[in-house]
Amino acid sequence: MTATAGGRTAPAALAPPAPARATLPRTFAAMMAREARVMRKNFVSTFVRVLVQPVMFVFVFAYVLPKLGGGAMAVPGGPTFSTILLPGLVGSSIIMQAMMAVIFPLMMELNWQKSITDRALAPVPIPLLAVQKIIAAAVQGLIGGLLVFPAVLFIHAEGEAPSVHVADWPVLILVMVAGSLMSAAGGLLLGTLLNPQKVQVLFGMVLLPMTMLGCVYYPWSALDGIRWLQVASLFNPLVYVSEGLRSALTPDVPHMPAWAFLLAIVGGTVLLTWAATRTFTKRVLT
Amino acid sequence: MTGPSEAAVRTAGLEKTYPPSGPRPAVPAVRGIDLDGPRGEFFGLLGPNGAGKSTTIGMLTTLVVPTGGSARVCGLDVVRDAVEIKRRIGVVSQSNTLDSDLTVAENLEFRGRYFGLTAREARARAAELLELFGLTEQRGGNPFEISGGQAKRVMICRALMHGPEVLFLDEPTAGLDPQTRTNLWEVLRGLQAAGQTIVLTTHYMEEAEALCDRVAVVDHGEILASGTVDELKSGAGADTVITVSYDAPVPDTIKALADREGVGKVEINDGQVRVFAAEPEGLLGELVSIGADAGIGVTDASQLRPSLETVFLTLTGRDYRE
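ok -> structure tokens follow
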């Protein structure tokens, strides 16, 4: 061990630094800078994890199966299967990534060593710390969603290309941004309510069915024939993101009216952020 | 703003009761404590594990919400002015709460930036502090792959990044080997010499004696005594404690010792006798010979000079459980 601060004279480093200007926006920005640093370090491992599932999915369904002479996934004369998949896979990636980005670190921070105190002691009110976590995870969800675009656009057999054009930029941006925020807020809510053992269950028993039944692989209106499932699907937030993206990107495929998915996504974001902020504050302040 | 005369830490009737949870009833962790820690002093909360020290520190550092009484840090209310208090304090918690996604140096850098330093200022100050604390070699390491003593010093550096008015340390040397502990004491003495106000909790008597100007002895959520270490030692009945264990119940003649001048009290518990005395000369020998006269043997004997341990024994009549 080398020399320590045990000397009789006060070393310069022990004198306080220049008067700090710890305003709320500065502290908030510093916390976001921390997230950016961590994301940059883990970029490859984080986003490879997000990409594997959608890439494998389009590979099998838009490339392998059509090559094998399947192609039964799409109605003849109707949109290709990859046209239906694109909004769905982007939506499910946003939701999965935003939720994982908030839940996994939170499990460590709340339960192991309680390392959340590192940021809880930063000079911001605790609810603002919750909002910061939501925004940071939403950014990751958004990046995850954007990365899926090229994968679905370019991986397909001949004649199976998705037919995509942005019909409505404002709706596209709103659905992607608010969808990311809603997912991150939902993740924070679940992460503060559940203990680590139950989070395992959450991924197996909640997120997987949610993705499978989230109108990722078919448009919501196609469920007309299975009325009970169509109604039950309305409780799945992913449905609104998929349908919203469908409306903005593949308007030729039947989709929900804009008022319905916008109300659900924006309303869900507000509600979940409010609830998650409260549960988070309760977990951090004992 | 607050003047320098304002106490660093002041509480009045501070209480914390954790609500019931499942089968567990409500837990009164802190039951009405009054503290007064002046600026510039090294203030210690001493008590066994579970005495309520960490809960008290939690309330003073704004992360535990009091259920009664009041607490002020740097003259600010811990509930109403939590954000402003956080700007002025540094906290070293008991467990390793370093950010495992960042390196040692990044932990300090971002802590500085959370408190308003620019990235460049924060990096420069982090480098200075790491150098001063002998941690330069560890700067690029993961904070969970360094030794416990190093992690503790990194946490102290982190807490000092923004030049806090008051530095709180919760059981800083718990779980460290003796050598590392002594090293850390040197670090803390150095900080105090530099004018840093420090509030520390510990369950080690010798730590409180070695470091603190002023000590509050806490048990079961209440303050048993407080004052400077010397005041506590010379205060209410803090005597030399002589403990003798016999292999059979002791004769009543031993009780008579309590009437002697310079003897505070005599406690008899089956074969164990404990004598609290301001003038202990010759007592130990006498206790042994009383046993010999009655035909019973001595199995153990000890004499503790006035210390915080005897203060605790005197106040509670119980052995100090670490």
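Confidence is low (pLDDT under 50) at residues 1-9 of chain A.
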